[in-house]
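Supplementary Note 3. Input sequence used for the single-chain structure prediction.
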Amino acid sequence: MMAKGKTRITNEIRRLRFQHGEMTQQALADRIGVTRQTVNAIEGSKYSPSLEVAFQIAQVFEVPLDRVFHYQASSRQE
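The predicted structure, written as discrete structure tokens, is reproduced below.
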């Protein structure tokens, strides 16, 4: 069982924002229809986005989904 808090999904959102003209969290939020707080939580790996939001983020940066998000599988049986 996973502990509450951080997810096993990591992301490159912060790096991608800065590669795209230092896009703010608010600007990204506006493009994908969520709040800045939601973008902050996703970027900080405190919250996993819906599949739709994940694809929207990848589309904003014009990269494949696996360039934005990475899943860290457990090294032990759960």
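The chain has one domain: 9-71. The first strand starts at residue 9 and ends at 11.
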